[in-house]
Amino acid sequence: MKTFLMIVMGLFVVGLIVYVVMAVLSQKTPDNLGLVHQQLRTCPDSPNCVCSEAHSQSSKEHAISPIKVDSNTWQQLKFIIIEQGGSIQSETTNYLHATFTSPVFRYVDDVELRWDEASKTIHMRSASRMGRSDFGVNRKRVTKITQAITSPSN
Questions:
Q1: Do residues 50 and 126 lie in contact, with contact meaning Cβ atoms separated by under 8 Å?
Q2: How far is it, in rounded angstroms, from Cα 138 to Cα 145?
Q3: What CA–CA distance (Å, rounded) separates 108 from 147?
Q4: Is the pTM of this model over 0.85?
Q5: Which of 137, 25, 8, 153 is nearest to 85 (CA)?
Q6: What is the pLDDT of residues 41-82, one digit of tens each?
Q7: Environment class of 53 (CB within 10 Å of its CB; exposed 0-12, middle 13-18, buried 19+)
Q8: Fewer CB within 10 Å: C terminus or N terminus of the chain?
């Protein structure tokens, strides 16, 4: 019984070390952010990313809907993100990059938004920097941002 408990404890410690290392590694800003041909980048094969651009709509796992709004809403977006716990990293007239950090292990996720003025549409991409699964966190985050944008109080 003592050997079994030692093995379990050892596995727990190794698992904890792996999570801590992944959290530290997630602090580095990835090179694959920003617009490519005036669109947000495609999601990787892993299920920890969602995107509203047309190139992602064929994947049920990654597809989300863009949001039709006016230019005033685009201007309010950074305040909505900050209110929800995000941190603005960069912004231009049609692009916004924010990060969200998980409370326990401090994993960082990137949220990118693109304003398409011609169609009055906000496109969004939310992706985890580390790991394969995000337990639906990115989809929930985008849903929460969408609800804040489209709520009658805005």
A1: yes
A2: 11
A3: 22
A4: no
A5: 137
A6: 999 988 999 999 999 898 889 999 999 998 889 989 999 999
A7: buried
A8: N
Which pLDDT belongs to residue 153?
63
Helix (H) or strand (E) holding 108: strand 108-116
Strand partners for 124: 113
Region 2-150: CATH code? 3.30.310.80
Q: How many CB atoms lie within 10 A of CB 148?
A: 17
Strand 39-40 and strand 49-51: the pairing is unpaired
Q: Residue ranges of the domains in the chain?
A: 2-150
> How far, in Å, CA of 11 to CA of 4, rounded?
11
Which pair of structure tokens corresponds to residue 43? 């999601």
| Cβ-Cβ contacts under 8 Å for 136 (sequence gap 6 or more) | none
> Nearest 5 degrees, angle CA 142-CA 36-CA 84?
20
Count of other CB atoms within 10 angstroms of residue 6: 10
Q: H-type helices in the chain, by residue range?
A: 2-25, 71-83, 137-150
DSSP 134: -
